[in-house]
Structure formats: C-alpha cells, structure tokens
Design goal:
The complex is a heterodimer of chains A (about 230) and B (about 300). Chain A has about 230 residues and is an alpha/beta fold. In chain A, about 30% of the residues lie in helices and about 25% in strands. The chains are: A alpha/beta (about 230), B alpha+beta (about 300). The complex binds adenosine-5'-triphosphate (ATP) and magnesium ion.
Chain lengths: ~230, ~300
C-alpha cells in the first residue's frame, strides 16, 4: 500500500515541487498518474522509492515510513517496489537473460532460484525466444518488456512506471500498457505515470491528476481531465 | 555473505581489473616498486640492528681494580659487577694476563719493553646488554667497592644508537610515504572501475542491492591488486636480496658485514608484504568507494 499524507517537497528553498499531496493506493490497484510537465509526477515516484525525502508530511510504502527510514533499510524497501523508466536503463553488454538474472543476483538470490525464475518472467513478457540477445538487438518495445521483466523478477508487491511508453510508437505503447494491465491482474499494485490520454481512457482505471504540485482530480472512471498542450 | 556469492565477487573483482587493464597494470607496478623499497628498508633496518647488536658486544667497558686487593678479593668485585642489570658479561683478567696481551699488542716496540706486571692492575672486562645505557652503568660500576677506574668509549656507543635511530626514522617516513603512494594509485584504479560501472551501480541500487553488496566487488578488486603487487614484490625482494648478499660477500672478504639469509626472514617478510598489500588494497579501494557511494547516495 502507498499512502501520502500532506506531503510537501521543495528541492530549493521557496520553490515547491509538491504542495500538499494526500492519496492512498491500495494493494492490487492500478492507478494512472497524469499531469502537465513539471507538475511533480516524477517527484512523487522518487519519494516512493526513497530517492528523496519529503520536506514535510508522511509517506508510507509497503510498511516502510519513508520520512524516517534508515539508510540501510532502503534496499529492502526497494525490493518491494519494481521500477520501470522511459529510458529502459538496461545493461548493454549483458544479454537479455543476464539483465534479468543480474537483478536477482545482486539481492542475493540463489543460482537455482535464478534459473527457475528468469525464464518464467521472460515468458511472461514475451521475450522467451530472445534471451540470448543483447539490448541493442531489441526493438524499443522489447527493451521496455525486458525492463519490466527485470522490475518483476524479484516479485515486488508494487510496480512503478515513469512514462514507460514515452519512447514508443502508439502500437508498442498499447502492447506495453496491456502487459502492465496483465501483470496487475496477477495481483501486483501498479502506479503508471503517463501523458497518453488515449491509453488512460482505453483502460478506464483510477486516474490521479496532479497540477502544479497539487492533486486536482482523483477519479475511478479513466477520465483524463486536463488538456496537454 | 552466502557461499554462492564468493564466486560472483571474485569474478567481478577480476573483471574490474581487466576492464582497466593498463591502469591495473600501472597500479600493480607502482605497488610492486613501493613495496620493494618498503621491504628493502625493513630488511636493512633488521640487518643493521643485528650488526649494531654484534658490534655492541665488542664495545667493552674496562673496570680497573684497586691494586691493594688480592686476586681472590678482586674476583669478588667481578661477581658483584656481574649482578648489575645491564651487564651482559663480566670477564676477569689478572695483571699477568693483561701484561701478556699488552706485550703481544706491542711486540718489538722497545719503548714498552720495561713494563712489569706490577705496573698494571687487575681488571674486569665488561660487555653491556645495551650500550645506550652505558653512562648509567658506568656510574653503578664506580659505586662498587674496589673499582678504582673505568675506561669506556661513549662516543662509539652513541654513534651506534644514533645510526640506528636515524635509520629507523628515515625508513618509517619512507615506508609511510610509499604506502600512501600505492594506496592512492589503487584507490584511483578502483575509482575508475566504479565510474565505468556507474550505470550498473545505479541499477543495483534501484533493484535493492545493499551498499555492502555493491561495494564488495570493488574491495575484492583492490584486495586482488594489492595482493598481486605484494606477491610480486616479495619474490623480487627475495631474488634481489640473495643477489646483493652474494655480491657483498664477494667484495667484503674481511666478513665485516654479515647478513641474515632470506630464508630466516621468510615469516616476517611474508607478514610484512601481506599486511602491506592488504592495507593498500583494501583501504585504497574502500576510501574511493566511500566517496563514490556518498556522492551518488540516494
Ligand atoms: N533535482 C531537482 N532540483 C531542483 N528542482 C527540481 C529537481 N527535480 C525536479 N525539480 C522541479 O520540481 C518540479 C517537479 O518536477 P518533476 O520532475 O516531478 O515533474 P514531472 O511531473 O515529472 O514532469 P515531466 O512530465 O516533465 O516529467 C519541477 O518544477 C522541476 O523543475
Ligand atoms: Mg517526470
């Protein structure tokens, strides 16, 4: 569960990126986060992953209190939250398989667990036949699938995606969003930042709209409120 | 750390070394050079200590005994001298023995031909444990009844301890500077490996690897570099030492200098090089890792 209570965040004195955000995302929910550029969406994500601390207010994520989390607890918080970015962030000199296995190995998984789990998630994202390729030999959509496989592999309860389709054409975007929806159907909480109105409306999930550091709309009907220009 | 991670760590450590082959090579060469000099100075100090010790034992203090005392009484004085703390050996010589030595030393010298045993005193030849304390010991000797005069060469004794002190301080400074140099180069090599892999490190943080886990391969890399340098330096030191000792023995026909065979230094040398390699490797990598992790800490 993700819970924000009156969260404010300023990067620099006086300039507020978040001006009092309160929201609650339940386990198993699928929630879009939309809003104009610079409204504070990425800031919210960085607060959830412990990359930033709130200036005031409280942030609770999967049992951790982020406003007072200890530095050495942060890795354990992050194991409960898989992250996907617009720019994929893959390791180019590793194969598809290794990119996913790497994420397991660095949190101390056993070789046997890795052997069992990696093919399973590659199958889930539809990359089972490409496990020996390198990221450079994949299309953008496939690279994002790989990033999703990596985010999934340690079995996090939550996945957070910051504009996961920002680099993809509409057909690829639809595929990725469908994949995230399928993963959500298997029980993973999903928070997806996006600018793509047609996708938001297609999936009719919960939509939180944020403008200038404040929540201006929180609807359950997939309604995209503001006009992107 | 689980067993299956040890393989991973070694592999990553070695990968880090080869990723920057030239830099690693430079780091090892500099480490070898530094440790070689460090080792040479340690051995030099060790040998000088032994040499000074040996020379100390030839630097004798002569205690002359009241001529009014009989031989038996004079020997009691010797016993009392022997009881002093800093006395290593006290050897009694009668005036007749002294005369014999005197005559032998000045053979054919007519100026001394008239010297009689009665002109000389019984004496005790004293060898000290520690010549640095000579002045104090001489005072104690004077306090013993029956001792009427003492000859001792302070200058020589002080010369030795000064030489020893200067050498010890100089080597400590040189050793410290050189260890710092190799520490810095290893630190720099590891830093380059880290910058090279900052994307990987960012991903590791993102998926929840602990800082300890992220650091360890780099510590292993530093450790391997340090140990490689130490191992090579140790082998070279051995060869160099044997070579030099052989050369000096050839030139030094009087056997003025005697060196301990390297085999006898094996254990202390393995420890010295091992500790130095460990120190520069682990501390070197650790410092750059701390800086890096703090700079990118989130
Ligand atoms: N590191 C930073 N230092 C200072 N200000 C920052 C920093 N990161 C973001 N900001 C500011 O905080 C505000 C919110 O930024 P944020 O990145 O959360 O926006 P966003 O909603 O993700 O925008 P976009 O849709 O363009 O990604 C912006 O005004 C931005 O300029
Ligand atoms: Mg953003």
């Amino acid at each position: 569960m993700i819970e924000f209570k009156k969260v404010k965040k300023s990067y620099i004195e006086g300039n507020k990126a978040l001006r009092g955000i309160s929201m609650q995302i339940e386990d198993g929910e699928f929630c879009f986060l939309v809003g104009p550029s610079g409204s504070g969406k990425s800031t919210i994500i960085k607060l959830i992953t412990g990359e930033l601390k709130p200036t005031s207010g409280s942030v609770h994520v999967n049992g951790y209190s982020l406003e007072r989390i200890r530095k050495r607890e942060i890795p354990y918080l992050r194991r409960t939250v898989g992250v996907v970015f617009q720019d994929f962030r893959l390791i180019d000199n590793m194969t598809v398989y290794e990119n996913v296995a790497f994420a397991m190995r660095v949190v101390g998984a056993r070789t046997q667990e890795i052997r069992d789990r990696v093919p399973y998630v590659l199958d889930l994202v539809g990359l089972e036949t490409k496990s020996r390729r390198h990221p450079g030999e994949l299309s953008g959509g496939e690279q994002q699938r790989l990033a999703i496989a990596r985010a999934l592999v340690n079995n996090p309860s939550t996945i957070i995606a910051d504009e996961p389709t920002g680099n993809l054409d509409p057909a690829r975007s639809m595929e990725i969003m469908t994949l995230l929806q399928e993963i959500n159907n298997l029980g993973t909480t999903m928070l997806v930042v996006t600018h793509e109105q047609n996708l938001v409306e297609h999936f009719s999930n919960r939509v939180i709209t944020i403008e200038d550091g404040l929540i201006t709309s929180d609807r359950m009907d997939g309604h995209y409120v503001y006009e992107d220009q | 750390m689980k067993i299956n991670n040890i393989g991973y760590l070694l592999k990553e450590g070695v990968r880090g070394i080869f990723l920057h082959g030239f830099m690693s090579f430079a780091a090892v060469v500099v480490t070898v050079a530094c440790l070689l000099i460090v080792g040479s100075f340690s051995i030099l100090v060790y040998n000088v200590n032994i040499l000074v010790d040996r020379l100390d034992k030839t630097n004798e203090v002569m205690a002359y005994i009241d001529e009014g005392l009989s031989v038996a009484e004079a020997k009691q004085v010797q016993t009392r001298i022997n009881l002093l703390d800093n006395v290593y050996k006290a050897e009694f010589k009668t005036r007749e023995q002294a005369l014999e030595e005197f005559v032998a030393d000045h053979e054919g010298d007519s100026a001394f031909s008239g010297v009689q045993a009665e002109d000389l005193r019984h004496r005790v030849v004293v060898t000290l444990e520690d010549n640095a304390l000579m002045e104090q010991t001489v005072k104690e000797l004077y306090e013993i009844e029956g001792v009427v005069n003492i000859t001792a060469s302070y200058a020589l004794a002080e010369g030795f301890s000064t030489l020893q002190n200067v050498l010890q301080i100089a080597s400590m400074v040189i050793i410290a500077v050189l260890l710092l140099v190799s520490l810095l180069i290893i630190s720099n090599t590891v830093k380059m490996a880290m910058y090279d892999r900052k994307d990987e490190i960012a991903i590791m943080k993102m998926v929840g690897a602990t800082n300890g886990f992220i650091r360890l391969p780099f510590v292993v890399q530093g450790f391997l570099l340090g140990m490689l340098g130490a191992g090579l330096a140790f082998g070279l030191e051995w060869l160099l030492y044997d070579f030099l000792v052989a050369r000096i023995a050839e030139l030094d026909t009087l056997r003025m200098f005697q060196f301990v065979p390297f085999q006898q230094l094996l254990v202390p040398m393995v420890c010295t090089f091992g500790a130095a390699g460990l120190f520069v490797g682990v501390v070197g990598s650790w410092t750059s890792i701390r800086k890096f992790m703090n700079a990118s800490a989130k």
